[in-house]
Amino acid sequence: MKVDPHLVPAFPVQFSDLECPSCGKGSPVPIGLAVPGSNVLGAYRCDNCGYRFYRDLPVGFAIDHAIALGMDDGRTFYQGDYVHFTMDPIAKGSRKKNMAPVQVERRVERRYDRVILLNTLDHLYGHVLLKLWNAQHYLDAHPDLGLVVIIPKGFEWLVPEGVAEVWSVELGLSRMLEWHSDLDDTLSGYLKGYEEVYFARGYAHPEKDRIDIARFTGIGPFPLHEFQALPPHITFVMRTDRVWHRWRFEKWAARSLSLFGSRALRDRIWRIVQDRRMAKCFDRIKKEVPALTASIVGLGAPGRTYHGMEDLRSPNMDVERERSWCETYARSHVVIGIHGSNMLLPTAHAAGCVEILPYDRYRNLGQDLAVRNNDIMQLFLYRFVDEYASPIQVARHVVSILKDHAAYSRNNIKNVFGHE
User: Are 120 and 132 in contact (CB under 8 A)?
Assistant: First the structure.
């Protein structure tokens, strides 16, 4: 079998670089695999004390946040830094398995006897997307191995060309962290047909500046070399669950309304507030850049159109809608939005962004951005503002990106040693 730090061996030799969680000794003997959802687990028996347990393979978040689960006594062992959202659901699920049927569609594009499995199942939209972007590395680095992508049904359109198989799982994202016995049985059955199996590491935060987004969406990103030549366009990426608030009390009121009131009422109120802030921001930018046009995307009913802003919001999401949004991002000099996974596809296609960053997300700075540059232009094209930043403050950054780009790129990219 191949020896590669980005591959986890599964069959015929299974990863076993671990200790028994019960006695802390011995060399656990692999006795099987389990793929009941987002977790990929090896089954082991300790050759010292006989303890049988499941243990996360070093895949996805389990690289740093692994858990071991007693097969017979149900004990839980945290083997890495504790993170509740990845560890608690699988621990609970192992004790109370979901026996309901799970539909899996297996699409075989080309047959391989030796394969890499990339498990992208996760409970969050952005996590699925980031894991999927790992596919580019495995397709390019291991052409001799077939890449099999395990993916939620709604993301199937993003699977790149060249994969060997797609295993599409018909299951809501919120349920991906559970232990689904039927899903495990189905996927384990598929695995029996291969001579050699590896799991992709499925890094939660792959190097985004290396991602060729057109391989995933079929839509080429904004051509950076034409930044100054193309008509100026910006896109607001809005969401109703995380709002561009004016001040701290307003944010507190929104959360209180969500907990003790009507979510629909909350959405209507803050939609009005947010739309007004967008309009004010757009008007201020347009005073400085008269040729500017703008779009609005996000979940929600389309609203009023302001001075050329096209409102592409929709209450429902489907493949065609998401693809059309990607086309909008790809013609945007700047995308503007609240921190979150909603910014991944916009920044993967647009030239730059201004992100409104809540203070409780500082530790996640940049994780939701598909930064396309690996030079000083990162600092220029990707801006962050406080969560209570005014429309005028946001507008100033956008105007700077649009009007100062020529001078900044000339001084820092063109007129330097090494430029040809």
Answer: yes
Residue from 146, 204, 198, 192 nearest 15 by CA? 198
Pairing mode, strands 67-70 and 352-357: unpaired
Q: How far apart are CA 42 and CA 338, in angstroms?
A: 38
> Half-sphere exposure (CA, 13 Å, Cβ side) for 101?
3
Q: Give φ, ψ of 252 to 5 degrees.
A: -65, -40
DSSP strands (E only) in 267-351: 293-297, 309-311, 334-338
CB contact at 8 A, 368 and 385: no
Task: Measure the CA–CA gap between 349 and 372, rounded to whole angstroms.
Answer: 9
Phi, psi (deg, nearest 5) at residue 58: -75, 75
pLDDT one-digit tens code per residue, 21-70: 999 987 899 999 999 999 999 999 999 999 999 999 999 999 999 999 99
| Site of tokens 């199937």 | 156
Most confident of 26-40, 156-170, 249-263: 156-170
Q: Residue 201 to residues 101, 120, 158: CA-CA distances in angstroms?
A: 27, 10, 19
For tokens 């499995």, the residue is 117
Question: Are 51 and 76 contacting, i.e. CB atoms less than 8 angstroms apart?
Answer: no
Q: Give buried/exposed letters for 74-108 (b at 16+ CB in 10 A, else e).
A: eebeebbeeeeebbebbbebbeeebeeebebeeee
Q: Residue 259: pLDDT band by 50, 70, 90 thresholds? A: low
User: 3-state class of 235 per DSSP?
Assistant: strand
Q: Rounded to whole angstroms, how far apart are CA atoms 60 and 118? A: 10
Length of the chain: 420
* CA 413 remoteness from chain centre: 30
Q: What is the pLDDT of residue 260?
A: 63
User: Closest Cα to residue 391, out of 232, 236, 266?
Assistant: 236
Domains of the chain: 1-206 (no CATH), 214-414 (3.40.50)
For 250, counting Cβ atoms within 10 Å of its Cβ (0-12 exposed, 13-18 middle, 19+ buried), the class is middle
Distance CA 169, CA 182 (A): 11
Q: Is the pLDDT of residue 262 over 80?
A: no
pLDDT of residue 322: 96
How far is residue 235's CA from residue 230's CA, in Å, rounded to a whole number? 15
Model pLDDT, residue 266: 65
* Residue with the two structure tokens 């692999």: 30
Tell me how far apart the alpha carbons of residues 134 and 201 are, in angstroms, rounded to a whole number. Answer: 8
